[in-house]
Fold:
Amino acid sequence: MDVGAAARILAQGGVVAFPTETVYGLGADARNAQAVSRVFRAKGRPSDNPLIVHVASLDSLHKLKLTTALSTPAISLAKSLWPGPLTLVLPLAHTARLAPTVTAGLNTVGVRVPQHPVAATLLAGANVPVAAPSANTSGRPSPTSAMHVLTDLDGLIDGVVDAGELYQLHAVGIESTVVDATQPDRLTVLRPGAVSRATLERISGVPVEEATGSVERPKAPGMKYRHYAPRAPMRLVEREQVKNAVSKALETSSYVRVGLWADHDICACYNKNSKVVAVSSGARHDALAAARGLYSALRDFDGEGNQLGVDIIIASIPENADDGIAQAVLNRLSKAASEGCKGDGSVNRNTSDHHLQQCQSSRRRKIETVTTLNSPIKDRHDS
Structure:
């Protein structure tokens, strides 16, 4: 679908997926309650999980009257970092007229100006505020290609603007940094991303905190529910423990197939091991490469396309993950591994073993199907 057609569909109340510099988003006119409800239904998204509203520019935000007057720190961040992978949570104006589900009934709204040229053209052409979460089934790894979108949402949305694999376009590859900018004297990071706390503090001139504790009414996506999760259980380990973790996983069964996500040097050790699906996160210490490839790797481990999938995933924890993109990658990994995991990041044994047995059984069935057909498994998009 071309950008012009997608813009017309959005303006007419349709739902389309489109690329951004973070991940592919699923967009609808934020003022059209029926269109927004389609986004929630297509994703299977909980109704208390607010959406981020995308606009073409800071000037567009002012003209749309979505928020009350911005604080000085918020203005500084918007002028310096928009367009880009930063979402500002701002006070909602009574003139906003947004669909109630966009804000989940809160008196705040998350707003972003995307940098990707296709997204910028789309927003300018549609001339409406676009509510857009990631274009995937809720809880699953976010999409970084049009094929990822169609794997989850084919038949549920009106189309996709295909800009290719985002990692090839120097995209960030993970969702935006979300910052609560409702207070004039401080900022709170609600979700880490490519924009670091250090950068936020330097530009805004105010202290930057991190959200802590449990969240009953999230102000932003990614705060309450399990996100980014592959189907197989995943264990996060320090880099020096990766080989030991892989060996232990292989010992659990003769049928086990292990997914490994680690830097190139570690993955190279498993090139000839047929029971290990090793996907490189890039060079050691290259957090941006890790971010760009993370979601695609998780989907590969799930067996999308012609892959058979894996039974358990071993993922190397990013080094120096105190701030910025490395911290954001660790955040996504932790969310993805949250079900069946203990606080120390190791897999809950009961949950893991049960899931492992199910995955092994499923994988054996897939192998039998491939053997019978004597051809690759056909992706559902080809049918």
